[in-house]
Amino acid sequence: MSQTKSVLAEGKRLLMGAALNLTANTRSLSAFSLRELARSAGLNPNTFYRHFKDFDDLGLTIIEEMMNQIRQPLRDLRREAAESVVPPGSPAISWQENPRLNFVRSIQVSNVTVKLFFEFVESNPKAFILGVRELHGSSPVLRKALRQLMKGFAQDMAEDIEVLGLLPTLSQESLLSVAEVISREMFQLSMDYIEEPERRDEICQQAGTSIVNLTMGSAVMAGHVGLIADALR
Amino acid sequence: MSQTKSVLAEGKRLLMGAALNLTANTRSLSAFSLRELARSAGLNPNTFYRHFKDFDDLGLTIIEEMMNQIRQPLRDLRREAAESVVPPGSPAISWQENPRLNFVRSIQVSNVTVKLFFEFVESNPKAFILGVRELHGSSPVLRKALRQLMKGFAQDMAEDIEVLGLLPTLSQESLLSVAEVISREMFQLSMDYIEEPERRDEICQQAGTSIVNLTMGSAVMAGHVGLIADALR
DNA sequence: CTTCGTTGTATACAATCGTATACCTTATTA
DNA sequence: TAATAAGGTATACGATTGTATACAACGAAG
Q: Is A57 part of any domain?
């Protein structure tokens, strides 16, 4: 069964790939015909029904796969970035002890993460195009699924920020709120990143400063002005 | 001619209205058929060709109209908000003179603007749905047009922030960059606002704090930590 | 070896599609 | 008043659509 599913589900995989291609290159998921999809996958139209109930079903399946393929790697990116700045075994130093060190570290982690994120986007452009497109697309089902996915990202990010000590103490809710804004912004920027290769450096840099602005702003508003002031001195 | 255009262009207006309805309620612009559109407008299919070359043309026309109907009102909202906090004739007081006053005023303007913005969204939901949907939609033409529109918003916002003295001095570019992030976030949130009426207060509030975080963060990073610290004292 | 579920194909058909051509009204204008 | 242009309709046609029904290949289970 499991072998059957991974080996013989060739048609299913072909259809999902074709859907990614069509979505990326031209239309949105609900805008091309079943026959067009099948043609692009080199299959008989009816084969679609063997695997999917309708286009929402297809979309959900793709999104689910995206979820598995992207979420964990993104977390790894963040850890990787954090550890590239401070080696894993080194002793923790609190923001109170050394604001400047933590500030610089935080910015570096942010910049490295941004860079790695966009590299990840570059290597999976179709998945991101589909995701962002359907996030505001015509299917309520897909919209809901993608919002949940993005909420998941934000939660991961918030958790990582806390665990890695990337910000002075914030309330759970405001930390999550900041993470949500950041992830929305990053996904939005990923479209520009894909579509305007000549602006990639600029986009990367802008994303970085936006994140810094947001996080430092939230820290300041949470009562850590003194810390930030010290860090900037 | 001008009378003809505004009085007798009934069909054109009907088609544009039908497109808005279809886009808002179900599909994206390129996902419904010409006949479906005409049917929904109560017109003969061929009437479409009397006014539009293709769907991109229709979309551009709608977007152009959106631009005219939304851009100026949004500026007015901001002025209105600013003047509701500080009456028009009153003497200007610089951030250096009184950080706290300017800080409070800035937050109030932000909150009022956010509230007015979402009320505006609520009264033109279809236009916003179409705009946000096609911003990441399948037509490159419409995407480009909508990005320009959003860039325009951001420029307006940056200009207003400067003229109204809502932030300590920032460089032109970083001010514009902040405005771009804010406008992206606001448009994105407008979808949630429309779709989740029960969360409207929460969304409104979150938008407000995000703006404050971003702007204050950018002020801090631009070297105004002292000012902000004084304001928060 | 037979049976059966899975995956894919072939054929078929009514509905819908985009659009070409021709025609009708109405308002403007020469 | 006659001519013209613009806005809208009617009809028609070939292409494409979604999907129903029937059938073929094949690995697994009995």
A: no
